[in-house]
Every structure is written in structure tokens, then in C-alpha cells.
Amino acid sequence: MPAVCLTHAFGLDALMGILLVDFLRYLLPAATLAGVLVLLPADWVASRRVSTREPAAGQPRREFLFSMSTVLIFSVVGALMVAGVQAGVLRMYQDVADHGWPYLIASLAALIVLHDAWFYWTHRLLHQRRVFRWAHRTHHQSVAPTPWAAYSFAPAEAVVQAVFLPLVLTVLPLHPSVIGIFLVHMIVRNVLGHAGVDLMPRAWLAGWWGRWLTTTLHHDMHHADGRFNRGLYFTWWDRLGGTEHPEYRQRLDEWLRRAGM
User: Where are the transmembrane segments (predicted)?
Assistant: First the structure.
């Protein structure tokens, strides 16, 4: 998803600024989580591991390189979005008082829910056989993903994900702070989903979080079998769409029992 950088002078400098922000927004969460997994005690990490496979040799490097092309595409779309805001085509406002705090909070919640729906249904499209080979196969080369896989997309998939925010801005006025929080939330959840190790508190996973929000196990099972678990943040679309893995709930319960819950 493109970063937002409002500037009065739109040009190469603005594009480079957006590129830097998008690069850091990917690099910092991915590198932080990868580093944490190395520094934590091996026994503890093993107790929290949900993936039954190991990443292939050279996989993190490949994931990083593909992620760089995604960062570039997100940045170009972000620059076009800035131009759209300046032209008055896209609806962004600067003063919270224009719509009030209740609207600001509601717009953030709406943005996350809308993005989850966008991701689920475009994800289903990307898994259609004729589309998968050239648009989504790159991401699924990571059968056992690492945090670096969060942006490991083919260019076509990167475009599909990048256009979500500009499309929303054609109809829904958003404050820059809402967009910033949304973008941070998106990449953090994405990085965690590809870690192969679930760092969430076990009590959360045994309760509301485990029932309604996607877990690392949820997405790891998707990488193992792309027919199932296609949601991004929430589990409800998979349930409604009949794409929740039939063994997901059982495997989550088994993992919690092994973890002492």
C-alpha cells in the first residue's frame, strides 16, 4: 500500500521521499521481527513455531528483492495519489475539525474492514489458475514464508494492492493520520503473518483474537495450501466464502494445548 507524503511541489523529490518512506515502512518491521527471532532463546521460539517447514536456501534474499519491486510500485502509485489529492480528485482533509474525532476513528475502522474485504476478494481472483501463474505465483514460492515475504509480490499483484487506497479516497475523505496508522497496521500484521512463529499472547489466541482475527498459523496454512485461509486481518470472509481450512480450528487448539493453554 502506498505511503502518503503531502508536498506543495510534486516532482522527483516528492517521489524519492515517498520511495524512502515506503522502503523504511517495509524494512523496519521485517528487519525488527527477523532480528527478534534470531535473538530470542531458540527453545522459546521453537515452542511458538506454527510452521512445520523450513525456509529454502536463499529464500529471504529472493523475498527481499521482490519486495523492492513492490516498494517501487507502491511509491509510484503513492506519487500519483499525491497528484490526485492536489488536483482535488481524491478526498483528503487536513483539519480534524472538518469532520470531527468520531468520524476520524470510524474512518480508520472502515478503512481496515474495507481493505480486508478488498484483499480477500482480489486474493481469490489471484488464485484463479489463469491469473495465478503470472500474478500470484511469486508470493507462493515462499512455501515456508519469512518476515521478508510480506511484500514479495509479482508486479501485477503489487498494483492490485496499491490501488486500494486511491480508490477509497475517491469516495471517503481521510485524514493523513488515519492513512498513516492504517499503513503501519497493514505492514505489521503482514510481517507477523509471514513469521512462521506466533508471538501473540497465548491467552489472546485462545479467545477473541483467535476466533475473529487471523493468526500466523492461519496464513502459514494458506502458504501450505492456497485453496484455504485467504483473509488478511479477519476470519469472517473465509467462513462466509467457504475457504477456511477445515483443519484450522483443530490445529489452533492443538497448538494452544501444546503451549499449555
Answer: 23-44, 64-89, 101-121
Q: Answer yes or no: is 23 within a domain.
A: yes
Say which amino acid occupies 115: H
d(CA 203, CA 260): 10
pLDDT, tens digit only, all 261 positions of the chain = 444 444 444 567 778 999 999 999 999 999 999 999 999 999 999 999 999 899 999 999 999 999 999 999 999 999 999 999 999 999 999 999 999 999 999 999 999 999 999 999 999 999 999 999 999 999 999 999 999 999 999 999 999 999 999 999 999 999 999 999 999 999 999 999 999 999 999 899 999 888 999 999 999 999 999 999 999 999 999 999 999 999 999 999 999 987 665
**CB contact at 8 A, 33 and 191:** yes
| Residue 185 within a domain | yes
Buried/exposed 195-212: b ≥16 CB within 10 Å, e otherwise: bbbbeeeeeebbeeebee
Sequence-ordered list of residues with C-beta below 8 angstroms from that of 58, at least 6 positions apart, any chain = none
For residue 183, the tally of other CB atoms under 10 A from its CB is: 21
pTM beyond 0.85: yes
Range of the domain at 104: 12-118+134-199
Number of domains the chain contains: 1
